[in-house]
UniProtKB/TrEMBL annotation:
Record domain HU: where: 4-127
Keyword DNA-binding: yes
Xref: Pfam families: HU-HIG (PF18291)
Protein name stated in the entry: HU domain-containing protein
Amino acid sequence: MSKSVTYSVVPRKNLLKKDEPAKYYAQAQASGDVEVKEMAKRIEKACTVTRADVMAVLIALEDTIVEGLERGEIVRLGEIGSFQIGLRGKGAVSEEEYSVSLIRKAKVNFRPGVALTEVLSGLSFAKVGKLPLKKKEEGGSGGDGEGEDPAA
């Protein structure tokens, strides 16, 4: 199993300093997707549980994560990591002046656990050409946009 991450180099402008030229950053490139059905097949090969049973558990896991987040709970998946609701919004001068109208949106925060953090150690990187942009309904640009990007 390869631990090599492919990347392309893309220009990004600093939106705070529009007069400066763009700088170039690495953008990770995905090699494909793994859907729930494929995960179920892979898990079935690694243990004695049938694919149908694995599918049932994965679907129930998704429902349980959503339910936990709706209740305001931190959802911990062992060494995989944890999910928690986070908020973005504007600030107020004092606590008394703060109102719910200043909250702009909720998001899901994910904190990787030991298992995922260990994946990142020892990776190698391989440059590839720019991949064509995917259509919006297919999930964005194909990269995760990580890097030291001042515009992010």
